[in-house]
Amino acid sequence: MVRLEHWDYIVIGGGSAGCVIASRLSENADTRVLLLDAGRDDKHLYTRVPAGQMAVFPRPDMNWLYMAEPDPSRNNRVDIWPAGKIVGGGSAINGMMFVRGHRNGLMTKYCPTLKSSKAVRWARVTREAAMALSRSVEFVLKAP
After folding, report:
1. Using CA atoms, how far apart are residues 60 and 29, in angstroms rounded to an integer?
2. Rounded distance between C-alpha atoms, residue 56 and residue 61, angstroms
């Protein structure tokens, strides 16, 4: 007999964003969260060591093996387009590299007034965008 479970939230996709959303939702001990992903778990040496990145690319159990469109500016060369088929998504196979925005791009002292930084001028377009940017700063600062 199949036992049906009840979930408060079901998060589809265990890439970086899906994992963060599931983690945040599950901070409340009374909330039941199910994270579904089509890929495998990330417990593999190649995902733990930056040098393993190149070994992941040809593996269909870790990479969706997408190919980019031919690039006419490079004699129609077709490149691999890595996409992690693994919990963590592309972040699990990118060699543990990430780029954090420059602090001046976040705002002058974490954004209460959205002053003159070039990187935040786009947020002035709408009040909603400015508010969203302001709220996101606390999460950017939590990153290692």
Report:
1. 36
2. 9
CB 133 within 8 Å of CB 123: yes
Domain boundaries, the chain: 102-144
Structure confidence by residue, pLDDT tens digits, 47-99 = 888 788 888 889 999 999 999 999 999 999 999 888 999 998 988 888 766 66
Query: Strand 9-12 to strand 33-36: parallel, antiparallel, or no bridges (unpaired)?
Result: parallel
Q: Please, what's the b/e burial string for 121-131 (b: 16 or more CB within 10 A of its CB; e: otherwise)?
A: eebeeeeeebe
Q: Is the dihedral of CA 9, 14, 15, 16 positive or negative?
A: positive
- CA dist 84 and 35 (Å) reads 16
pLDDT band at 143 (very low <50, low <70, confident <90, very high): low
Per-residue b or e along 76-96, where b marks 16 or more CB atoms closer than 10 Å to that residue's CB: eeeeeebebbbbbbbbbbbee
3-state SS assignment for residue 102: coil
Reduced to 3 states, what is the DSSP secondary structure of residue 144?
coil
CB atoms < 10 A from the CB of 16, how many? 16
